[in-house]
Amino acid sequence: MLLSPYPTTGERIRITLLWLWCGMVILFLLVPILIPVPLSFNSGAFFIFPLEGISTRWYEVVLGTHRWQAAIGNSLIVAFGTTLIATILGTLTAIALSDEKFPGRRIVMPLLLSPLIVPVVITAVGSYLFYARVGLASTYAGIILAHTALASPFVVVTVGASLTGFDRNLMRAAAISGAKPITSFFRVMLPLILPGVLSGAAFAFVTSFDEVVVVQFLASANQRTMPLEMFIGLREKLSPAITAAATLMMALSIVLLVVANLLARRGKQRPRID
Amino acid sequence: MSALEPTKLDRPRASRDWSAADSGTARSVAAALRRADLGDRLRSLALAAPLLVLLALSFGIPIVLLLSRAVYDPTIADALPQTSQALAGWNGTGLPDDAAFLALAADLRSNQAKGTAYELAKSLNARLPGARSQVLKTVRQLEAADRPPLEVMKAVPFWSAPGTWPVIESGTHSVTSFYLLSALDLRWNADGGIERVPPEQAIFLQVFMRTFFVAAAVTLATLILGFPLAYLIASVPKGLAAILIVAVLLPFWTSILVRTAAWTVLLQKFGLVNDLLLWLGVADDRLDLMYSRIGLIIAMTHIQLPFTLLPIYSVMRTIQPSQMKAAYSLGAKPFTAFRRVYLPQVFPGVMAGCLLTFIICLGYYITPALIGGASDQLISNFIASYVNVELNWEMAAALSFILLVFTLALFGIFARILGLDRLKLV
C-alpha cells in the first residue's frame, strides 16, 4: 500500500522510513498507557521488569482499604451527581439550542463551551473563592456543581449532534395528534435521541470521574476522590497501589468512552424521517 | 406577471371589501404569529435557562469574582480609615505631615485592638516587601505606650523611608493596578510612570516565558511525531486505518492524571526509559528524568499528541490522492508536489491542531506539578501556590487574569481562522 505500481528506490526508502517513524510513534503512544497494567499485578513493591511474581495484592489494597474505598465511594457520588444534573440540564439546553428560534445562539454557545477553554486552575481557584463564601466549599454539592460546569458542554454538544438528525415535524405531528409537549418529548423525541443523551451522560461521567484539579481545591479530607487520592499518593510516595488504581480508572474511562463514541455515532447516523 | 395582475376594471367591487377584510385578518394573523413566535422563543429560552443559571452560579460568578480580586483590594483602605482621610490632600511627594503619622498610629492601634494587625501587615508586605515585620514591630511599640505615638512612629526608620508612604497612599484606593502590573514584573515609579521592577523581584516574566517555551516545545514535538502518523493513517486502507486510529484514541481517552502517573513510573531513575537508554547505549549512566524539564516535555507531548494529530488527520482524510498523482504526472518531483499541492491543503488542520495544543499547554497544571522540578513549574502551578501556600489571592487573581487573556486571545484567533466547529469534542 501507499507504493505506486512501479515504485522507485527513493519511494521505497521514503515509505520504509515513514513506517519506521510511525511505528515508533505508536509505541510512544501505547507503551506508557500499557505499562501500568502488568506492573499493577507485580507481587513486589518496585516498578522493575521482570516482575517478581503475579499477584493481586495491590488491587486488594485499592479495593480493600478504607482510604481507597472512601475515595472510590466519593468518586461515584460526585460522578453520578454530576452526570444526573449535567445530562438533564444539558439535554434541555441542547433541545433549546437546536430550535432555530432560540435567541442569541451565537452568544450562548461560546458561553456554554467556555468551561472547556478556561484553564482548569482558574476555574478551580475561582470556585474555591466563591464557594467558600456561600458555604459550598468542602461539600459534595459544591464539587458536583463545579464538575457540572465542566461536564455539561459534552452533553450539550453530543445531544445537539443527535438532534441534527431529528425531524422536528415529528413533534408537530404528535402535537396535532393531541399529545401534550411533555408526552411527545418522552414518547417521540427522547427515544430517538437517546443514543446521544446516553453518550453525553457517559462523557459527563468520565469528565467528573477523571477530574482532579477542582477537587483538589474544593474537597476536604472527607470528599477525597480516587484521582485526588492518586495525586496525593504520587506526590508523597510512589506505591504500586497507584498502578492498580490507574489501571482501574483507565479501564473504566476507556470502556465508557468507547460506548459513548459508538452511541454518539449511532445517534448521528439515524436517518431523517421525511 | 402583468397578465396575472388583477386590474381595477375586472376586479368586482365586492372583492375590494374582501381585500380590506383580508388586510385586517392579515394584520391579526401576523400579530398572532409574532405572539406565537415570541412564545416559542421564550419557551426555548426557558429550556436553556436552568443550565445557563447553573453555569452562571457555578462558573461565571466564581471567575468574575476571582478576576475582580486582581484589581480590587480594599484590605488596606478598610484597615486604615483615618490614614486614608489624612492622606486625601497629600501631593504624594516627600513625607506627609505629622497628622498623617498620627492617623496611621491610631489606625495601627485600632487594628491591634480588633486583632487585624497581622492581616494588615501581610497586605502591606505584598506591596512592599519587608513591611510585615516593621508593622508588627511598630504595633508592639505603640502598645507599650511609654512614648507619644508620633515619637514612636518617627523612631522607626521604615515610616520615614522614601518608598513607604506612596505605597500606603496607593493602598488607600481600593481599586488598584498594582497586582496586574506585578504579574508582568512592572510597577509604578515615583514620577507616576511604569517601570520594570528590580531584577531580584522579577519572577513572573520568567514564568510566562517558561510556560510559552514548554508549550511551544510540546507543540513542535507533537507536530513532528504526529504529522507523519496522520499522513500514514489517512493513506492506508480503511481497516488498517481503523486499527491505527485506536492506537491514537486509547491514550486520548485515558485521563491526564493516569498518563502522568504512568510517566512518573517510566521516568524513575530505575524506570523503563532509563533501562531503554542504557540498553540502546544512548546514555552511559542513568539520567534524572523525573523532576526535569525534558521529562515534563516528554510526558506533555504524549498527552497532547492526539490533540494535534486528530485535526490534521481529519483534514488529510478529505484530500484526494489523485491530486498528488496529477502533480506527479505533470512532472512535479515528490517534494515539490508535497509542498505545493498537499501542504497548503493540510495547513488549516496543522494550524488547528497546533493552536489547540499550544492553548491547552498554557493551562497545564497536573503534569508539571508531578513531573516537573521546582524550576519547571508553569503559570498554573504559580496560581495554585499563591492560593495554597502564600494565601495571596490578589496575586493569584492577577496571574489568572493574564493567563486567561492569553488563552482567550489565542482561542479568538483559533475561532476566527478556523471556526468553532473545528473544536470537535467527540
Share of residues in strands of chain B: under 5%
Number of helices of chain B: 20
Greatest interface by residues involved: A-B, 96 and 85 residues
In total, the number of strands of chain B is 2
Straight-line distance between termini of chain B: 53 Å
Blueprint of the fold:
The complex is a heterodimer of chains A (274) and B (426).
Chain A: H1 9-34, H2 36-40, H3 57-64, H4 66-98, H5 105-117, H6 120-134, H7 140-164, H8 169-176, H9 181-210, H10 213-218, H11 226-236, H12 240-269
Helix pairs in contact in A: 3-4, 3-12, 4-7, 4-9, 4-11, 5-7, 7-9, 7-12, 8-9, 9-12, 11-12
Chain B: H1 13-71, H2 75-79, H3 81-86, H4 98-114, H5 117-127, H6 131-144, H7 149-155, H8 157-160, H9 164-171, H10 178-183, E1 186-188, E2 194-196, H11 204-235, H12 238-253, H13 256-266, H14 272-280, H15 293-316, H16 321-329, H17 334-362, H18 366-371, H19 379-388, H20 393-418
Antiparallel strand pairs in B: 1-2
Helix pairs in contact in B: 1-20, 4-6, 4-7, 5-6, 11-12, 11-15, 11-17, 12-15, 13-15, 15-17, 16-17, 17-20, 19-20
Gist?
In chain A, 77% of the residues lie in helices and 0% in strands. By secondary structure, chain A is mostly helical. In chain B, a hairpin with a 5-residue loop joins β1 (186-188) and β2 (194-196).
Describe this structure as you would to a colleague:
The complex is a heterodimer of chains A (274) and B (426). Chain A has 274 residues and is mainly alpha-helical. In chain A, helix 9 (181-210) runs antiparallel to helix 12. Chain A has helices at residues 9-34, 36-40, 57-64, 66-98, 105-117, 120-134, 140-164, 169-176, 181-210, 213-218, 226-236, 240-269. The mean pLDDT of chain A is 89. With 426 residues, chain B is mostly helical. Chain B contains 20 helices and two strands. Chain B has helices spanning 13-71, 75-79, 81-86, 98-114, 117-127, 131-144, 149-155, 157-160, 164-171, 178-183, 204-235, 238-253, 256-266, 272-280, 293-316, 321-329, 334-362, 366-371, 379-388, 393-418, and strands at 186-188, 194-196. A two-stranded antiparallel ribbon of chain B has the order 1-2. Chain B is extended and about 95 Å long. Classes of the chains: A mainly alpha (274), B mainly alpha (426). At the A-B interface, helix 1, helix 4, helix 5, helix 6 and helix 7 of A face helix 1, helix 11, helix 12, helix 13 and helix 15 of B.
